[in-house]
Amino acid sequence: MLKSKVIMVKTRSGKILKIVREHYLRDDIDNGLFGGKLDQHPELQNDLVSSEHFLIPDTNVVLHQMDVLEHSCIMNVIMLQTVLHEVKHRSSPVYKRIKSLCANPDKKFFVFTNEHCIDTYSARVKGESTNDMNDRLIRIAAKYYDKCLKDRNQTAVLVTNDRANCALAKKEGLDALTIEQYVKNIVGYPELLDKLAKADEAIEVDKSISYPEHLKLSQVQAGVKSGKFFQGKLGISRENYLEGKIITHGEDGKEILIQGRLNLNRAVHEDVVAVEMLPEDQWSNPSGVILDVTVQPGAEITDSEKKKSSGVPTGKVVGIIKRSWRPYCGILESFGSPEMTRHLFTPAEKRIPRIRIETRQAKTLIGQRIVVAIDSWPRFSKYPQGHFVKALGSVGDKDTENEVLLLEHDVAHEPFSQAVLNCLPPSDWSIPKEEFAVREDFRDLPICSVDPPGCTDIDDCLHHKDLGDGTVEVGVHIADVTHFIRPGTPIDNEAATRGTSVYLCDKRIDMVPELLSSNLCSLRDDGDRLAFSCIWIMKPNAEIVSTRFCKSVIRSKSSMTYAQAQMQIDDKTAKDPVTMGLRGLNKLAKILKHDRIEKGALSLSSPEVRFHVDSETHDPIDLQNKELRDTNSMVEEFMLLANCSVAKKIQQEFPECAVLRRHPEPPQSNFDVFLNAAKSRGLELNAATSRDLAVSLDRTEEPKEGIHSYISTLLRILATRCMMQAVYFCSGLESDFRHYGLAAPIYTHFTSPIRRYSDIMVHRLLAASIGADKTFSELLNKTEIQNVCKNLNFRHRMAQYAQRASVGLHTQLFFRSKVVHESGYVIFVRKNAVQVLIPKYGLEGTVFMDRDFEGNTTVNADDLKYIEDKCEITVRGVKLCVFDEVTVQISHDATNVQHQRINLKLVHPKINGISI
After folding, report:
1. What's the domain range around 551?
2. The PIN domain covers which part of the protein (predicted)?
3. Same domain assignment for residues 651 and 672
4. Secondary structure string (H, E, C) spanning 276-304
5. Tens digits of per-residue pLDDT, 460-469?
């Protein structure tokens, strides 16, 4: 049956447009009761519903109670089309979760297209709101199921927290319960009560605490439009959990400081907020105080810490535009009796406030890492309210802590689904004969790979061949992952979602299944492999004569580590083709690097360590700084050259939809602290352009009286922290393509398709540009490409944070039973502390200057003098400046169970009451 509705619409030009909306109804839509999906199911005992029953949740229950619905005992659920449509419109993350439940056959969630069933559809009543219409459609569907189930001695239970909807359902003779009523009466699953999300009205009011009321969304939108309010994503400081900032939307985005509990006004890190600027006489500056929740959980920013004169733009949160709450990992605080039901939860992420939850499992949860979700943050509550989601394991257990850091950084680490695995070729796959006919055969070339020790996902190989006419052929050969991962398949969708492989200290989270990452696509030296090759003809001075790209078949002659390749280059007796090729590549790489630096490319630095782990326990037993050799630089130079060459090609062929990578130039304000630190030690640096900065940093390598030799490295480390994040983007939606750090006019990522989805996109564009593969609609859709790029930028950033957190975890494990004294350097001076870098361990930590080595506050304001411009702090007559060398004691501090950390205590210089 076809229902149609005609709407007459007047356009801006005054024309009358006739729109016909058609709605198809059918009488043969399966209700799921007789298709074998829900017939044989275990009886769920419930005091309120005595008969076997099916649940029909409404939209609000799905939106707010997913942790209950995901529990193993909740089965036999009818998901209505009306509910799914509304959830999809209101929350994409919840929609993905409910779709996953519906796809799980063990859960017995059945989707019923009620709006196309002739027995359950009803047109909108005149004057009826969308919400009222949806509620009515849900009740009609519940009645329909009740009627279908009568003959089977079963019933349909409508689960709704909407009081009006619940009352109408009961009036119409339906079984209707709130989710809390239903869960409280389930026999044998008391933990379900902890998973209930609390409504605001269920929370006790504490009138001694009062935050300003948030403005309504309509008021916020009007204020943003008029310029009265500013919109932006809140970023809480890592050094001070009561201080944050937003960068306003728009081309002239400016930074607004937000300081103190009341001005933050219940906004949580990464919420999108509306901010009202404070009067200029109330502007402040970042406090300069390190406020660490692990040391000072109840601390506040006092008025004496705020600078009222010559401050930066400062504001207050007046409304929440979009909450960015997610499940948080952490622990229950062991305050009060475990018999109590109300407890405080401390998140692992220091920038998230403590959360109040109700749980009856406190005895078993103390000492466990658990996951908690925020439900609301009422005006009259000091803390947000939340509910328990699940337990992860014991605090301090390495597997548990690894799980925490993966969850906290939103790293997808579940096993690949069967749908993804079904896309893989058989494990004994070999190159089909037809591929040799359409590819160039490079199997006789002296091709080799050079990678870190233990690398199994080898993306790239190199070769060098003297052509005998004064030129050489140089090739970069990259794994042809796109041969196995076709667009739109489950494996392609999964790789696009994951975005990147994540490398932790003791394991790797692959972007693609291991059969591809470590076998069929990995360019190992054990057989033929498919590759995508970039071939240059070069003169001895590294000038490029020609560039071409092709699909190929290669056979690596050797898979070497950087150290092995360096030994072969240095062994003067070795004359084999691979070694001769490495020498030629190394010589060209040095010329290429010199030319890049002359153009303004930066050589920055960051402290990196490598852990040696026990082969059985995987615990760290030793660590050392990563050693960089000429071969590291050699590989890097040719990968950069390949990326630049490919970027030019795909941008020429697809100017509107090329996937490129740019590195924005940092605003000069980013360099203020860095330049001031150098100036305090008599070093004048220039950061006007990348070349000026590179030249300035090179000058610091020259010996200077009174300046230790390590200062150049420290300056390069600090310069790295002034940089902006490099990002992927679609060429048709940006005008600035430049890569600031590399001083390159155009750049992309082509060389690591096993571990980066951006490279897969680039491979497809390059293959289409040389006629080696076909284009497809998503490949040429600017909006779609930009959306994928946004996800890749997020995933890349989270992967970096997860990798740093893994290093931090393994450093803690390494020092768990050790106490050592080690030299370090002051890299930042704060109002109450200095931050120290220990190069030997790649470790950075805080030494507080306002308390003794046991953490007791012993230093008063008169004993502590901080001069920001000179980057120095004087404590009881002893002065410490940025870049000073100090000696610290390093130990593992487990006194705070939640935030176990590396503790640094000052040994030298000797400060009375501070140094140990």
Report:
1. 418-655+748-798
2. 53-167
3. no
4. EECCHHHCECCCCCCECCCCCCCCCCCHH
5. 999 999 998 9
